[in-house]
Structures are given as C-alpha cells and as structure tokens.
C-alpha cells in the first residue's frame, strides 16, 4: 500500500502528524509512506524512519514571488514529481484549502476532514471521501483519528512519534547538564516576560543546570541576550537548523518554552518539557506526549516563576 500524507505547516502541526506514520505502519507493515510538507519543516518527517520520501513544497515563498519565472519552474517541478507517483490513499490531515489543493493534484483516493470538521470547510470539496472528526480533541488525536477512519483501523494504538534525536558533532552541544529555554514565538502576545525568564535561568543555574537560549532571528537573539545578561552563566545557542535543534533538544535534561513548535518537538523526542501559555489555551494544541509533558498557564493567566520551578524540579528528578 502506498500512502501520501499532506501536512505542510506549521512546525507544531507537522510534529502533531508524526504519530500517524507509526499508526499506519503498525496497521499496514508493508506500507510505503511519503509526506508533502513546507520546505522549512522538511527535516521533521525526515527524522522518522518510516517516511520513505519527503516532497518539499514552498507555498509561503511562492506566494511572495509569483511574478518570477523560477517560481513557476519550481511549481512545475513539484507537480511533475507528485504526478510521478500513484497512491492508494492521499490523506490530508491539515484541512486547509492550500493542503486540499495539493492533495487534489496527487494521484490516488483523496481523503480528508468533512466540511464541518475542517479548519477551512471549502477544502472538503477536493476530497473523494470525507470524515467527521471531533474538533474538541487535541490536534494529535484529530490527525490519528482521521487516518484511522480513512484506512479503517483501530484508534486505540499506543502513542509514538517515532523519532529520535540525530547525531550531531558534540562540539555544538553544551557540556554537562543543561536546559533549553525557548523564549521566542511567532506572536508577541504569546511571550513570557523577559524578567521571568532571567529569574528562571538563574534558579536553574543554582540547581546545577545550565540554561541554553536559542534565538533564530535577530530580534529573537537580542531577546535571548538580554535574558542571559540577567542570569550570568546562561549561554546562547549557535544558529541552528531544525536537525541541529533536534539534537540540542534531544540531549537536554529539560526544555521550557512558550507556545512554539519547538516545545512540541521536545515532547516528540520524549524530553521533559514545560510549555508556558500566556495568550492561548493549551487544551487542544498544548504539548502532548508519552513522556514528562506539562502545560502551564492559559490565555490571560501566565504562569509565575515559582509555578514553573516546582514543575521543573519534578522533571529534573526523573
């Protein structure tokens, strides 16, 4: 059986779809599974040994460069690559118009959410078969339940993201016991106050755990620098791609992060993780996994440093 998964973005959503691969392989051991994903997140499905081929798509970049000849050349190359495969099932677990259009271009029986269950109801018009999946369950469960409904297998399989931290040169990783603190996210209203981050970092240092502060963009790195300045001994992580970040996370004693996809990556890697919520609620999209995972705070109720430290101490004793 050949199956194409369509889950293009964002980072957290792509990670939420990883357990579907394991579910499919437990139910159909000989299945060949491919995945279509936004190019920026292609390293995530590549971490899963059960994914045969990854088809990167660049919708975000293409939209900004529609007048360039090279853009249409890339779109044509993507379509030809997709058209070169015949699938038994094309499964869109995203439920957006953009993902439905990708599924529609693939050759195979197209399955997705029914209009009343999809994030964008119009997407359902592009599927051959649709399924009503409850909207009031966690995103990981929604993906798994949709796949189980589309391919008719049990929904009570053990949760397994199926990935492990890649091997990266040790000189890129901190010495000793460390915690990765993800202080940046896509929206300013999701940020936890810098002063609290510095207090948390200082408290971790007192407990013999070195805080490591990643930062991708220039504003994120400046924020990380200010937090580190308030906790002498904290270190800044070097610029990293997703694969290198997975290696950094995978060897950490603890991960603490705001509402960001990298906190979900920690849960997928079974690293103890605490997610901090300031402007959103974690019920449907909080960190979710079989290891030590905790969601603290909610919209309008950011967690206090003492709350985070209590949970951090529990995680560090494990």
Task: Give me some keywords for this one.
318 residues, alpha/beta, Rossmann fold, six-stranded parallel beta sheet
Question: Can you give me a brief rundown of this structure?
Answer:
The chain is α/β, with parallel strands linked by helices and about 325 residues long.
Explain this structure.
The protein is α/β, with parallel strands linked by helices. The protein has two domains: 2-151, Rossmann fold; 170-317, Rossmann fold, CATH 3.40.50. It contains twelve helices and twelve strands. Strands 3-2-1-4-5-6 form a six-stranded parallel sheet, with helices on both faces. Helix 2 (18-27) runs parallel beside helix 7 (139-151) and helix 8 (194-206) packs across helix 9 (218-229). The protein starts with a strand and ends with a helix.
- What string gives the helices and strands in order? EHHEHEHHEHEEHEHEHEHEHEEH
Unreliable stretches covering 5 or more consecutive residues:
none
> Per DSSP, what share of the residues sits in E-state strands of 2 or more residues?
15-25%
CATH level 1 class label of the largest domain = Alpha Beta
CATH architecture of the largest domain: 3-Layer(aba) Sandwich
End-to-end gap: 41 Å
Number of strands: 12
Mean pLDDT: 95
Q: Domain count, please report it.
A: 2
Return the CATH topology of the largest domain. Answer: Rossmann fold
Going across the major beta sheet, what is the strand order?
3-2-1-4-5-6
Biggest β-sheet: count, sense, barrel? 6 strands, parallel
Helical proportion, percent range: 25-40%
């Amino acid at each position: 059986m050949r199956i194409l998964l369509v889950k293009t973005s964002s980072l957290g959503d792509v990670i939420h779809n990883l357990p579907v691969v394991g579910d499919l392989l437990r139910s159909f051991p000989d299945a060949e599974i491919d995945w279509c994903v936004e190019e920026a997140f292609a390293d995530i499905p590549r971490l899963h040994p059960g994914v045969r081929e990854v088809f990167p798509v660049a919708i975000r970049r293409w939209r900004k460069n529609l007048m360039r000849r090279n853009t249409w050349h890339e779109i044509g190359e993507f379509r030809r690559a997709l058209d070169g495969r015949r699938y038994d099932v094309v499964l869109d677990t995203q439920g957006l118009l953009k993902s439905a259009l990708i599924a529609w271009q693939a050759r195979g029986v197209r399955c997705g959410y029914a209009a009343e269950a999809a994030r964008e109801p119009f997407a359902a018009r592009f599927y051959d078969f649709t399924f009503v999946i409850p909207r009031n369950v966690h995103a990981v469960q929604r993906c798994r339940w949709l796949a189980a409904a589309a391919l008719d297998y049990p929904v009570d399989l053990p949760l397994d993201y199926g990935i492990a931290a890649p091997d990266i040169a040790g000189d890129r990783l901190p010495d000793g016991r460390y915690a990765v603190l993800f202080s940046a996210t896509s929206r300013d209203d999701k940020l936890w106050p810098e002063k609290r981050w510095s207090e948390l970092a200082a408290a971790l240092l007192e407990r013999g755990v070195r805080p490591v502060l990643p930062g991708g963009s220039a504003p994120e790195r400046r924020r990380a620098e200010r937090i580190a300045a308030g906790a002498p001994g904290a270190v800044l992580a070097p610029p990293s791609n997703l694969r290198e970040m997975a290696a950094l996370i995978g060897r950490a004693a603890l991960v603490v992060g705001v509402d960001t996809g990298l906190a979900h990556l920690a849960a997928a890697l079974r690293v103890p993780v605490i997610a901090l919520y300031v402007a959103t609620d974690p019920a449907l999209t909080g960190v979710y996994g079989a290891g030590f995972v905790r969601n603290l705070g909610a919209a309008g109720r950011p967690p206090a440093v003492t709350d985070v430290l209590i949970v951090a101490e529990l995680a560090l004793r494990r």
